[in-house]
Amino acid sequence: MKVKESLPKVLLAPMLQKYFCAHLISQRDLSRRTIHAYRDTFRLLLKFLMRRFHLMPEALCVSDLDPPRVLAFLEDLEHTRGNSVRTRNSRLVAIHSFMRYVASIDPLLLNVAQRILVIPSKRFDRPSIGHLTRPQMQAILDAPDAAKRSGRRDRLLLLLLYNTGARVSEIAALRVQDVRLDFQATVQLHGKGRKHRAVPLWRSTTRLLQQWLRDTAAAPEAPLLPNARGEVMSRHGIAQRLATAVARASIKLPDLRNVHITPHKIRHTTAMHLLQSGVDLSVIAMWLGHEHIETTHQYLDADLESKKRALACLTSPHIPRHRRSVSKPLLDFLEGL
Q1: Where are the extended beta strands (E) located within the chain?
Q2: Running DSSP on this structure, what letter comes out for residue 320?
Q3: What H or E segment, with its residue span, contains residue 47?
Q4: I want to staple 143 with a disulfide (CB 3.0 to 4.6 A). Which of 102, 170, 249, 319 is the partner?
Q5: Coil/strand/helix, residue 239
Q6: Number of CB atoms found within 10 A of residue 153's CB
Q7: Which residue stretches of 217-328 are H helix?
Q8: Does the active-site annotation cover 167?
Q9: How many other C-beta atoms can be found within 10 angstroms of the C-beta atom of residue 178?
Q10: d(CA 175, CA 60)
Q11: CA-CA distance, 155 to 141, in Å (whole number)?
């Protein structure tokens, strides 16, 4: 007779609190952005378990996080919340991280953790990278009304996005003290994983920055590009300012109306324009703050113009043209059989 396996009853709540406070914050010292992403995963998971399985968070044990429930949660993310596969995989990464911690803290829970750790990330087709042409990008940069203070800020915002190829979170987090305009004009970006990088600025960007800093006279720790209340601009706020500029630019350049443009597409545009200008891939990786150069290789795959130039360097082989023989009339063909 098969004996039913007895799983250790360890409450989830204390283990989860230790994971966040002692492990992620104190030991690993992860960024607030990463902590919040992991926190949101478990908030969604606990609410899902209450709704679907009527399991109250305070009474949950670690062993209650079994594969069927975790898989049901991941499926719910995609089909109920409409999350992408990429987001679904990010949530699974957070759950895997917690289970690795559980296994290291309590060996009796090793079997419980391993059942979750074998759940694989879901494969998905990567969409082709879209980017703007130089005339399209120029039209967007010219769109904000420079006669208004908000227009001058928006023009500087868009130019910094294009000049630096920064993530929208990196642009939003910029402070006045992150700008250096003395010997070599640069801006210091605070990227993922507490990694910082300095990006050089064009003369046009430098001139706009100098004028903006003279006009605002803001303190060093103040946001470089504040919203109307003088606070840090949100992701939504930056996307909204970009959408306004695109709408104005579409009047002069109607083809922009058929293009979905986001701050991240401007980041792709910067990378593609650097690549088309002959900049080495490793330099682009540093420019964008990619941890692995394999991430930057996607731009090389998407650069059709470079592929065309490479093809032009090859000598086309001579292939003799095949002359088609004139077919006989059907009756002649049949007579000859």
Answers
A1: 179-180, 186-190, 196-200
A2: P
A3: helix 32-53
A4: 249
A5: helix
A6: 22
A7: 235-252, 263-276, 281-288, 293-302, 304-312
A8: yes
A9: 17
A10: 43
A11: 6
Q: What is the pLDDT of residues 123-177, one digit of tens each?
A: 876 656 688 999 999 999 999 999 999 999 999 999 999 999 999 999 999 999 9
**Banded pLDDT at 1 (limits 50, 70, 90):** very low
SS3 of residue 1 by DSSP = coil
CB 117 within 8 A of CB 102: no
pLDDT tens track for 115-134: 999 999 998 766 566 889 99
Catalytic annotation present for 328: no
Residues, the chain: 337
What are residue 179's DSSP bridge partners? 187
pLDDT for res 244: 96
Tens-place pLDDT, residues 261-304: 999 999 999 988 998 888 888 888 888 888 776 667 777 665 55
Residue 303: count other Cβ atoms within 10 Å of its Cβ: 18
Q: Name the catalytic one among 91, 131, 153, 290.
A: 290
- Selecting among 69, 190, 192, 197, the annotated active-site residue is 192
* 86, 264, 309, 328: the active-site residue: 264
Is residue 267 annotated as a catalytic residue, yes or no?
A: yes
